[in-house]
Amino acid sequence: MFLNMIGLTKYTKGAKLSYRGSPLEGKSANACKALQKYFINREDIYMKKVIALLLSLTMVVGMLTACGAKEEAPEAPAATEEEAEAPAEEAAPAADGSVYYLNFKPEQDEAWQALAKVYTEETGVPVTVVTAASGEYETTLMAEMGKSEAPTLFQVNGPVGLANWKDYCYDLAGTKLYEELTNESFALKDGDKVCSIGYVIETYGIIANKTLLAKAGYAVEDIASFADLQKVAEDITARKDELGFAAFSSAGMDGSSDWRFKTHLANLPIYFEYTEDGIDSTDAIKGSYLDNYRAIWDLYINNSTCDPADLSAKTGDDSRNEFLAGEAVFFQNGSWEYGNLTGDGAYTDDDLAMIPIYVGAGDEANQGLCTGCENFWCVNAFAAEEDIAATIAFLEWCVTSEKGTTAMASEMNFEIPFKAAVDNPNLFVKQGSTYIAEGKNPVSWTFTTMPSEEWKNGVGTALTMYAADQTDANWDAVVSAFVDGWASEYALANGQ
Question: Do 186 and 37 reside in the same domain of the chain?
Answer without folding.
Answer: no
